[in-house]
């Protein structure tokens, strides 16, 4: 977890970058009349390399961010990232637009991560669950007013707390933030029930908010 | 109560700069995607195209060149054929102009003499000929028969070399036959005009027949005469009609014929033949007995 923390904690002074994500990006694409992810993937399956490039541009940063914040190592994240996209490339002929492309591709990412954890003796990393009783103990807290004003510091605290989350909870939070997946899609991508996915998300949110309440010691 | 989605957390999370994958990873992925899709720089030409492109291009070039050469050759031979056929008509008129004696001789003949010698073509034959002429004029005719071939089943196409050569051989006698045909077909008017070219084969045949057996032809004409006078006239005409061979006879042969006329006492004919001979061979030194 220490390597995760070193990567996930942004260096001081790093400028935030505003880029379109999830629903916002989807809305913009619809406004511009651009093809959906599923259409692009189907076109790529028919040999349209340009469709793949468009798809790659859309999902390159969120997927890489998801993997990097999960494994905490740039080299490992790059390796997993490349392997993930190779699987997408090799699955072009078998792809069917039965589900959202994002659900499908993040499910691949999840499976690839599981393989990675198993290979490194960390199979229990994503299986960590907390009981509902623990969740009940987490209060709905307000973010400290000074952190609301100092967004840079709030961001640093958030990323430090994210690195400390259990793998399954962090994954659920990252799938929600990076992949813009719904509860059902998170459950499908990670192979758990909707309630489990919801529970993981609530734990993650509660712990992250808690990191933003008090003053730093 | 904690909700599974927290917009405030989301805003703070998204304030961070998104991590960017290394450029080499981007390149690897995009290159692989293009390679698999078959449009990448390396796979712009497929293995098949790379392997067979040059041989196929060379083969196509050879085939096209050979085809064009063949077409040009056949066109040229076709033109040669046309050019070789055109002189047939010219030769026909030339022969008449070079040998005015035939026309003169016909002019000198009376209709009575001409009548039995060469019967006027029957009405159906004339009509058929006129029909053919009209068809040619209106252009509605079946594929025109090439000059000198006379083959009704001829299909206009680019002739093959052997065929062209054969046609040339056929065209030669046809050319030679043209004046004789005129003499036969236009004897009533005694006007020497170039014969319709499609008639050439028949004319050639007639000429060949007459050349082979002028005596027989004359005999047949004589047999067709009903009176002794007519028989004499027919005899003269027949001998004169058989005379087209004079076109080919040598001056010595001609002089021998003239000498025979002298022996037979045909003075008028003798003088006419002599005059013609002098016109034809003005520099020829006549023998003493014919001067």
Concise overview:
The complex is a heterodimer of chains A (about 220) and B (about 290). With about 220 residues, chain A is mostly helical.
Care to describe what's here?
- The complex is a heterodimer of chains A (217) and B (291).
- By secondary structure, chain A is mostly helical.
- Chain A is 68% helix and 0% strand.
- The longest helix of chain A has 23 residues, at 49-71.
- Chain A is globular and about 55 Å long.
- The two termini of chain A are 21 Å apart.
- Chain B is rod-shaped, with a radius of gyration of 42 Å.
- Chain B has 291 residues and is mainly α.
- Classes of the chains: A mainly alpha (217), B mainly alpha (291).
Largest interface: A-B, 54 and 33 residues
C-alpha Rg of chain A, in Å? 18 Å
Q: Number of DSSP strands of chain A?
A: 0
Q: What percentage of amino acids of chain B are in beta strands? A: under 5%
Q: Helix amount of chain A, in percent?
A: 55-70%
Q: Look at the helices and sheets of chain A and give the structural class.
A: mainly alpha
What characteristic shape of chain A results from the CA principal axes? globular
Oligomer: heterodimer
Uncertain segments of chain A are: 1-19
What structural category characterises the helix and strand content of chain B? mainly alpha
Look at the structure and give the mean pLDDT of chain A: 79
Give average pLDDT of chain B, whole number.
Answer: 64
What is the total tally of β strands of chain B? Answer: 0
Which descriptors would you attach to this protein?
heterodimer, A: 217 residues, mainly alpha, 12 helices, B: mainly alpha
């Amino acid at each position: 977890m220490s390597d995760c923390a070193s990567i996930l904690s942004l260096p001081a002074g790093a400028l935030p970058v505003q880029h379109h994500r999830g629903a916002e990006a989807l809305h913009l694409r619809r406004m511009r009349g651009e093809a959906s992810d599923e259409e692009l993937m189907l076109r790529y399956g028919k040999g349209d390399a340009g469709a793949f490039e468009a798809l790659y541009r859309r999902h390159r940063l969120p997927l890489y961010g998801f993997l990097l914040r999960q494994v905490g190592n740039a080299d490992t994240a790059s390796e997993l990232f490349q392997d993930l996209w190779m699987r997408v490339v090799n699955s072009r002929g078998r792809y069917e637009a039965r589900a959202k492309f994002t659900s499908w591709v993040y499910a691949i990412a999840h499976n690839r991560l599981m393989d990675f954890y198993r290979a490194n003796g960390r199979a229990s990393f994503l299986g960590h669950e907390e009981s509902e009783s623990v969740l009940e103990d987490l209060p709905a807290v307000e973010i400290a007013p000074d952190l609301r004003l100092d967004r840079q510091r709030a961001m640093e605290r958030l990323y430090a707390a994210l690195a400390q989350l259990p793998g399954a909870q962090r994954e659920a939070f990252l799938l929600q933030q990076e992949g813009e997946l719904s509860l059902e899609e998170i459950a499908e991508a990670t192979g758990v029930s909707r309630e489990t996915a919801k529970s993981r998300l609530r734990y993650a949110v509660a712990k992250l908010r808690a990191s933003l309440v008090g003053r730093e010691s | 109560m904690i909700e599974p989605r927290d917009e405030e957390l989301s805003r703070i999370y998204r304030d961070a700069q998104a991590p960017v994958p290394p450029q080499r990873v981007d390149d690897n992925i995009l290159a692989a995607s293009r390679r698999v899709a078959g449009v990448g720089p390396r796979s712009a030409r497929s293995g098949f195209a790379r392997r067979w492109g040059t041989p196929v291009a060379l083969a196509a070039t050879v085939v096209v060149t050979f085809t064009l050469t063949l077409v040009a050759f056949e066109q040229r031979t076709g033109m040669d054929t046309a050019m070789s056929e055109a002189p047939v008509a010219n030769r026909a008129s030339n022969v008449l102009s070079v040998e005015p004696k035939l026309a003169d001789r016909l002019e000198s003949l009376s209709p009575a003499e001409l009548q039995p010698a060469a019967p006027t073509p029957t009405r159906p034959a004339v009509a058929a000929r006129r029909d053919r002429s009209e068809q040619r004029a209106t252009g509605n005719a079946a594929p025109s028969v090439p000059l000198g071939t006379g083959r009704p089943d001829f299909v206009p196409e680019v002739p093959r070399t052997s065929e062209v050569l054969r046609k040339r051989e056929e065209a030669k006698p046809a050319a030679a036959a043209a004046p004789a045909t005129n003499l036969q077909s236009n004897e009533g008017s005694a006007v020497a005009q170039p014969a319709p070219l499609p008639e050439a084969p028949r004319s050639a045949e007639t000429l060949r027949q007459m050349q082979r057996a002028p005596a027989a032809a004359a005999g047949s004409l004589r047999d067709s005469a009903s009176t002794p006078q007519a028989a004499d006239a027919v005899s003269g005409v027949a001998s004169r009609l058989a005379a087209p061979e004079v076109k080919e006879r040598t001056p010595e042969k001609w002089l021998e014929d003239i000498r025979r006329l002298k022996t037979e006492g045909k003075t008028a004919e003798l003088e006419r033949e002599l005059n013609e001979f002098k016109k034809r061979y003005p520099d020829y030194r006549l023998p003493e007995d014919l001067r």
